[in-house]
Structure formats: structure tokens, C-alpha cells
Amino acid sequence: MSETTLGGIASRMPKFIRRADPAVATAFACIVILLLLGSLYSRSFLSPEYLLQQLKVASFLGVIATGMMLVILLGQIDLSVPWSVATGAMMACAAAAYGPVGVVIAIPFGVLCGVAIGIVNGVGVAYLRIPSMIITLATNAVAQGLMVVYTGGFSPQDSATAAMRYLATGFTIPGVPNAVIIWALIGAAMVFVLTRTSFGRVVYGIGNRERAAYLSGIDTRRVVLIAFAVSGGLSAFGGVLLAGYASKAAQSMGDAYLLPSIAAVVLGGTSILGGRGSYLGTVAGVILITLLQSILSVMQMPEAGRQIIYGVVIVAMLLLYGRAPASR
Amino acid sequence: MKDWRYWLAEQRGTLLAFAIFIVMFAIYSGNHPAGFTANVVQTAANKGVLLAFVAMAQTLVVITAGIDLSVGMIFTLTNCMASWLVIGTGLETAFGLVAVLGTGLVCGAINGAIVIYGRLQPIVATIATGAVYFGLALLLRPVPGGSVNEDVADFLTGRFFGVVPASLMALFVVVLVVWVPFRRSELGRAAYAAGSSETAAYMSGVPIRRGKFLAYTLAGLLAAIGGLFLTFFTYTGEAAYASGNAYTLFSIAAVVLGGVSLFGGKGSAIGAIFGALAFRTIGDLLFVFDFDPLWQPLFQGIILLIAVSLGAFALFRVRNRLEWFL
């Protein structure tokens, strides 16, 4: 009875509302609430300049979260993000110090270093069957060790190339920061891959049940390997952009991106168990996290308070819609 | 098969960790300029027990097939708390000790409640609670500082009868008071059963929820004991993000070295303790052989990578390729 009434109401609503994921809708609702709260605090909160600035800051997290989402869709996790980001940034800046050739290959070299970290992760997870949480923690430690040896434990002196600065802070289209365009391009590519290619379908398939995907004749191990490599590469690219934004790399510059990237993906309704989630949700999650950070810093909340509010908000939102089904 | 063979098969991981530790420590003390003296042992023990406590905490959660990525942050938080509270007269110090250990219990219980009753994934839930605990630690100690009751600290970090390191004795007492009763209790068995096969345990009417909750709560307590000892060694409290993260990471390495299965249901805290001591000794080997300390993080990372890759040998025993996807 109640089901038919519900169905009756639902069929009268526009199609896009019926199809909307409740998690994505909640995330967007939270964004609106945050914007309203912010505008109560300060008039300039709804100004286009401020919003564009927020989008620009969000795009760094957006690039990193894109890779994280791919891995989470598989039902895995990538905890090597902090030092993949730092490695990408440091190696790009390091390459820039090696003359004109170095300047040209700086960005690809930084990204490739991230891909290398991702491949180690992927081999460990796909072929050695090590739990992703563990192997990515280990590669994170190794990447950190390599960078500490390379930099001598200090922030490296090399600075970002003009191209990196242009990508992160320049304007190709007047009014729209380049970083936002890059995020849009990467996001569009990700949406295309996830919804229009067999690779994308396989990613969802593996996330639901790897056994079934394997029995359907898919080389699931190769897909997992590629996904981790892409995640590592995108993390490193995020690092390259960040280095361009700050015009140099720094130790532990990636630490601030692990929790937010996982949170952005999960708050956007992607199941941490894999197999379910949309990129639109991740976009919502990234903007939500960035706005939250921005509001907390506008309110001059100290680091301690920010960490606490972060943790509490993430747990609270997950309790709202990220719970596993009750046992049997 | 004889009884002792079963026992041997069950304790294989622990014995292996013990053997690795003995070999590493023999190399370490053999090459140490001062040789095998009470001082060398005391220094090694004091560094080792910190990780041993955190590794024990991680073991309890890993046994239930979960993971606690907030142990390092509970360790940091209790360190900061202890630098405020464990000071003054005997009564005040005692109150401080109880408060610090109680905080650990509460942190663990919060993790447990969120994971078990909130039905969230342990990884995400404990990363998030870890951020909260670190925020609290930062609130308590925005800059490093504080102090501790030095009589208690020196007593617990010194030596008994000039030979036995007090910190090792403390570790032994904690094993007897926390781990052994847990292992032998019904709820401890439930935690093992839940890690081994949650569905089967549930069907058999094992109290898996209470067992897991107890495991998470005791993990908080053990991490707090570790934080307390850190305060005793350093006399200060410091909310260091990197150090908290490192302890979380090393606790996982120690657990793996100690023969505890990350898939749950297998292993013991004793193994994790030897895993922790062995891991610390491996790190110290670098100093004995005069390496640049800059190489230490890389060396520890590689050890960790090798330790976790060892589990891949189980793949050789797989007969049916479908067993890859567990």
C-alpha cells in the first residue's frame, strides 16, 4: 500500500529529482546551507569573486579526489596520497632545476613519479593480494623516506616552473582560473571513462564483486593496477598544481589532503565498500569540504578546532547515509 | 597429531617474531660500542615498549578484522593530557593517571561505538575520529611543553635491582592484567570468532558486538598506556601530527611482523610485542652501523613494505584462482 503511494508521488516528480541519489542531494543541500550560513557572517560570501576563489582552491582537492574516487569505487583505498602529492610537487620542481630540458619535462616527470608509486600500490593490491590499506601505507612511508633522503629533511629550494604557475594561477579564459578548467577537464574525462567505456563498467563491477567480474572473463587485476596508477598520477598532478600555486614544494604539503579527499568522495555518496557512486557526488563533496574549510578559516578557527569539526562532520554525515546494512 | 604440534602451529607467528627479534637484537648489541650492558638494554627497552603498547592496541582491533588508524592519535592525545595532569602530590598524580587511562578507554569506546553500532567502515571512521583526537591534543598543547611527576617517571623508566628495565616489567604487567584475561574471556573469544568469520560467529550466537566493542575499548586503553609512557620518557607533551601518524603506521608494521593476520581471527598480542621490539631494533641497527639518520625513514619504509609483502607467499598455496578474491 505505502509502496504504491510512494511510487505514485515519485512518478509525478520531474525525472531528474527521481533519479537523484539521496546522498548527492544531501551534499548539495549542505552546500547551500553552508553558503547561507556564510552569507549571514559576511556579505562578500556570495560575491562571484569569492565563489570563484573557492572553486579554484577546490580544484586542487578535486583533482586528487578524482583519483581517490576511482580507487574507492573498486572497494579499495589509497592512503599514499600525502606523499604522492609531495613527491609529484618535489620531483617536478627538482626537474625544473636541470636546465631548459628539465623545465619542459617538469610536469610530466612529476606526474610519472606519482604513477610509479601508484603502480607499486597496484601490483601489491592486484597481484600480491595485499590489503590496499596496508600496502598504500607502506608505499607512502617509502615515498616519504625517498623524499627525506632527497631533500635532506628540509623544504627543497627549487622553485616551480612558469608553466606550473600558469596552470595553477593563470587565466586562459578571462575570469575563469586555469585550475578550475583543469579540474573540469579531468572531471569530464572521468565521467566519460566511468559511464561510457567498458573500463568504467568493469570498475563498478569489481567494486560490487571482483569474483563475478573475474568469472565474466575480465582481467580484473590489470584494471585494479591501472586504477591505482591513475590515482597515483592524479595525486602527483594535484601536487604539481599545488607547487605551482605556492611556487615551490614543501615537506608534508600533502598531509592536508588525505582525509579531505577520502571525505569528499565518501560524503558525495560513493560507497566506501565500492561499486556505487557518481562523479557528481564527488564534485559536491569536494565543494562541501572546501567551503567548510573556508568558513572555518574566515571565522579564524584555530587548527585544533578545524580538525575536531572536520572529524565530527564526517562521522555525522556518514552516520546519516553511509552506514553498512544491518547484519542479516 | 600431538597437542604440542597444535600449539606450535598456532604460535608459529609469535615464535617467528620472537626469533627475528632475538637475531636483530644480537646483531644490535654485538655491534654496539658499549656492548650488551644494562644501559643498552634499558635504552632499547624504553624505546621499544612505546611501540609495543601501541602495537598491542592495534592487535586487539586487527583480531576482529578491523583496523584502528586512530591509535597514534590517541597516543598523542594522552601524551598531551598526561603532561598536564600527571603531576603534583601523590594523590593528584594518581588522579591524573586514572584520568589519562580513562580518556584512552573513552576514545576506544567511541571508535567501537561508531564502527559497531554506527556500522561505519573502520578505516574511514577511525581516520575521522583520529582527526578529532588530534584536534583535542592540539587544543591541550598548542606548543610542546608541560611536565610530569618525575619520581613516578624515573621509577617506571629506570631499572629494578640495577638490571631489569622497569618499562619492560610494566609491559609484562600490562600483558598479565589486560591481554591474558581478554584472551581467556568469553568476549575475547568472541572477538577472535568475529574476526575469523563474522557470519558463522553470529549464527552460533557468539556475542560478537560486545566482543568487538571490548576489543576497540581496550585498544584505546593500551594506546593511552603508551601515551603515558611517552610522557614519562620525554617529561613533556607534544601534539605532533607526524609522530602520531608514524606510530599508527609502525603499529601496523609491528602487528604484521608479529604474525597477526590482517584479515582477522589469527595472532596474539605477544607476537605483536615482539614484532614491535624487532621493528624498533631494525631501525636502531642503522645507528650502530653509522648510517646517516636521514636514511632512517626510507629504511623503515622498506622494512614495512617487505613485511607486508611477506603475506603474499600465501598465494603459492592457493589451488583455486577464485580464492584470490576473498
Describe what you observe in this structure.
- The complex is a heterodimer of chains A (328) and B (326).
- With 328 residues, chain A is an all-alpha fold.
- Chain A has one domain: ABC transporter involved in vitamin B12 uptake, BtuC.
- Chain A contains 15 helices and two strands.
- Chain A has a two-stranded antiparallel ribbon with strand order 1-2.
- The longest helix of chain A is centred in the middle third of the chain and has 29 residues, at 99-127.
- By secondary structure, chain B is an all-alpha fold.
- The model of chain B has no long low-confidence stretch (mean pLDDT 88).
- Chain B has a two-stranded antiparallel ribbon.
- In chain B, a hairpin with a 3-residue loop joins strand 1 (159-160) and strand 2.
- Chain B has a single domain, classed as ABC transporter involved in vitamin B12 uptake, BtuC (Orthogonal Bundle), CATH 1.10.3470.
- At the A-B interface, helix 7, helix 11, helix 13 and helix 15 of A face helix 6, helix 10, helix 12 and helix 14 of B.
Question: Which tags fit this structure?
Answer:
heterodimer, A: 328 residues, mainly alpha, ABC transporter involved in vitamin B12 uptake, BtuC, two-stranded antiparallel ribbon, 15 helices, B: 326 residues, 2 strands
